[in-house]
Specification:
0% helix; four-stranded antiparallel sheet; 115 residues; globular; mainly beta; seven-stranded mixed sheet
Length: 115
């Protein structure tokens, strides 16, 4: 069973930046050829798609994060990233790395943005 392991969450002030990383537990699962996504769930709210990247490299962002977040991956490290800038308190959430086509979710990493 492949696991996705997120890292990089934490506490940051509004206006700051964080970079989330997601690595697969097995090298046999290629983040490069799969559609990958970052979802987030804020307290008391439903999970929502923050960003996604297709196997061909096409990216898609929620309107609320466009221009501030960048999803990318490093083929050599088989790792997915989410660069988050100009963070706002409303970005506070648990962020999940997801391989939607395979139904695989990471355990989540907490991002807290203080005002």
């Amino acid at each position: 069973q492949v696991q996705l392991v997120e890292s990089g969450g934490g506490l940051v002030q509004a206006g700051g930046s964080l970079r989330l990383s997601c690595a697969a537990s097995r090298s046999t699962f290629s983040i490069t050829i799969a559609t990958m996504a970052w979802y987030r769930q804020a307290p008391g709210k439903q999970r929502e798609l923050a960003a996604a990247i297709s196997s061909g490299g096409t990216t898609n962002y929620a309107d609320s994060v466009k221009g501030r977040f960048i999803i990318s991956r490093d083929n050599t490290k088989n790792t997915l990233y989410l660069q988050m800038s100009s963070l706002k308190p409303e970005d506070t959430a648990v962020y999940y790395c997801v391989a939607p086509e395979y139904g695989i979710w990471g355990q989540g990493t907490q991002v807290t943005v203080s005002s």
